[in-house]
Amino acid sequence: MKKLAISALALSAALAGQSFAATSTPVVVIDEFESRVLELVNAERSSAGLSALAFDVRLQAAAEAHSLDMAVHADCFTHDSCDGTAWVTRMRSYYPTGGIGENIAAGYLTPEAVVTGWMNSSGHKANILNSSFLGIGIGYVYEGGSRYGTYWTQDFGTLAAAPVPEPASYAMLLAGLGLLGAVARRHPHA
User: Which string of b and e fits 65-98 if b means at least 16 CB within 10 Å?
Assistant: First the structure.
């Protein structure tokens, strides 16, 4: 079973002045499926004469968190968080200012299938081809025992992208977050 949902809202002007509680952005990793979705989305944008979207660490963290949230909560397939938090509030905790948009999908097995599904839906396509969006985060989670199996989230933003760190810089990020010591304690030296 495949499902699509959309918030084809470009909330740039309406919400830019509102303040929302910010949370720290987790370290994120971009997997092969997420990278492939970006390639396909940017091919669609190029065909429409639009500039490419760039991965944004804030949007990536938001998208990954939402896909995971939907995957681990039975019967939760919605833009709002599974705890009932409004999608805009959730997004603003990662991406406090600028315009935002979101596409979600479930049950699609490949990046090609999910992008085709989104492009065949006018609202999803409008988000993908929105010329105001500059950054993107793509969350993909596979949860074998869940209702749909696969959960996809695209989060879009109008601000210049905050780049996703390269793997070589993860050690510095972890040290800065105080997590390096915790990792070292889990793997004591002989």
Answer: bbbbbbbeeeebbebbbbeeeebbebbbbbbbbb
Amino acid type, 48 = A
Retrieve residue 161's tokens.
């992208």
DSSP state of 169: G
Q: How many residues does the chain have?
A: 190
Instruction: Identify the pLDDT of residue 166.
Output: 61
Token pair in block for residue 79: 């833009």
| Distance (Å, whole) CA 180 – CA 152 | 30
Q: Which residues contact 160 (CB under 8 A, 6 or more apart)?
A: 134, 135
Tell me the pairing of strands 150-157 and 3-7.
unpaired
Instruction: Give the residues of the chain that fall short of pLDDT 50.
Output: 1-27, 176-190
Q: Nearest 5°: phi and psi at 21?
A: -65, 130
